[in-house]
Amino acid sequence: MAADVVNLRQFRKAKARSEREATAEQNRISHGRTKIEKSLTRAENEMAARLHEQGRIEKPEQD
Predict the structure, then answer these.
(1) What spatial distance separates the first Cα and last Cα of the chain, rounded to whole Å?
(2) Nearest 5 degrees, angle CA 55-CA 58-CA 59?
(3) Which residue of 17, 24, 44, 63 lies most exposed, with the fewest beta carbons within 10 A?
(4) How much is the average pLDDT of 50-59?
(5) What is the pTM of this model?
């Protein structure tokens, strides 16, 4: 009935390291785009918004 001895300090550090790596991976996905990719996405969104506005029958009233 001998169990393996586990160093809790090393276990905590390994767990924290893996959590930091997971967070870093998410940040690379969301913030790691090039300037060209960002501008292309922005242009596509603006074009879709303009096309959507052109299909309106009435313009919204402005106060």
Answers:
(1) 79
(2) 95
(3) 63
(4) 83
(5) 0.46
